[in-house]
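Throughout this chapter, every protein is written as a compact record of paired, labelled lines. The reader may check this reading against the record printed directly beneath this paragraph:
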Amino acid sequence: MEREERLLLDAATRPYLKAGFYPYFFARGKLKIDPIFLALLRGGSIPDGARILDLGCGQSLLAALLLAARGQYEKGLWPAGWPKPPVASKLMGIELDRQSAKWARKALGERVSVQTADLKDAQLPDADVVLLFDVLHYLSDADQQALLDRIAHALRGGGKLLMRVADAEAGWRFRLTRLVDHSTVLMRGRLSGSFFCRTISDWSDLLLRHGFRIERQPMSQGTPFANILLTAFRQP
């Protein structure tokens, strides 16, 4: 990892010290290990001025990264060859876990709006970019369909959905991904959890049926997981 990337992660995670040592060290580990966060900045995936809605946002790590990115860029501490970081017009998140949402609000304050709600029935505000990372498989088939309908409505003015899912055809890598999901459920105090998973072809077909045009990109670099980023474009 380059010096500028390390400084960016330092800046993004520092606010979580206000929430406590656990959310701080979780943020540091997640942003360092999970490839999706820096990949979005490196690839210019988020347009400038966008209203960003993060569904299942957890501690709002992407919002923290975007806020830190602008500060690092203005200081001249930006990785060479990376596009200019976007400035969001609005940063919004919805999270089921009350503790994670509380940590996000304590760390990031009024710069980010974090609502505590269940994605099964949450009302979605209008957005230009919707993020849905490692979340949709926790819902039933019917609830997945209903959520994608509401996402399409939230993006009715145009924009895109950035959705990371696991490929059910990826063999042992998929089974390992599911094991981590079960561990996450246990850590949140639930004895069991049910998942509705699909192959990448099935995920793609599902998005097409909801009016999206899609692109695929592997998104598990440096990890043993079976994750794919689906960028789904919504026409106005």
In short: The first strand starts at residue 51 and ends at 55. The radius of gyration is 17 Å.
